[in-house]
Amino acid sequence: DHVVDRFGDRAVFDGAMMVALFGALVVIVSPWLGLALVGFAIWGLGVSVIFPQLYGMAARLPGTAAGIGLGAMAVGQRLGGLVSPVVVGFVADFHTLRWSFAVIVGASLVLVVITRPTVASGRSTAIDPML
Q1: Comparing C-alpha atoms, which of 53, 3, 46 is closest to residue 22?
Q2: pLDDT tens across 79-128, in order?
Q3: Residue 124, C-beta contacts closer than 8 angstroms, at least 6 positions apart
Q4: Residue 76: Cβ-neighbour burial (10 angstroms; 0-12, 13-18, 19+)
Q5: Sequence-distant (≥ 6) Cβ neighbours of residue 128 within 8 angstroms
Q6: Would you say the C-alpha torsion 76, 57, 52, 98 has a positive or negative sign?
Q7: What global pTM score does this model have?
Q8: DSSP track, the chain
Q9: Tens digit of pLDDT for each residue in 21-78?
Q10: Of 124, 130, 115, residue with least CA distance to 61
């Protein structure tokens, strides 16, 4: 919280994304199990900061009620939690586990790039339930 107060939500989120990406890349390119485990720890450290930030940003998205923003975040999280293991298993069956992690990281980066203009500008794309 002190770091968020000092640097802001977006800066902490971007930093956490970079930490998670670095950890994921270590996992993907690591030739040794020990180094891959360190990569998983770094990846987890980044993700452990990302999710609280996402919830906070969803609750404060301009033009959207906090409940709607949090609900949309929860739906997205659940869908990701259901789809990611299936994608990892599917890709690992045809290639390797390393490739499956690369696919998940690539899909995550695409989502960040697609959603960044909306979050950065403060525009809301949520549907108002009162309409």
Answers
A1: 46
A2: 988 988 898 899 899 988 888 888 888 888 887 788 676 555 544 444 44
A3: 61, 62, 63, 64, 69, 118
A4: middle
A5: 68
A6: positive
A7: 0.74
A8: -HHHHHH-HHHHHHHHHHHHHHHHHHHHH-SSHHHHHHHHHHHHHHHHHHHHHHHHHHHT-TTS-HHHHHHHHHHHHHHHHHHHHHHHHHHHHHS-HHHHHHHHHHHHHHHHHHHHHHHHHT---PPPTT-
A9: 999 999 999 999 999 999 999 999 998 988 888 888 888 888 889 899 899 888 988 9
A10: 124
Distance CA 22, CA 53 (A): 18
* Angle, helices 66-94/33-59, rounded to nearest 10 degrees: 160
Structure tokens at 99: 């490739």
On whether the CB atoms of residues 30 and 39 are closer than 8 A, the answer is yes
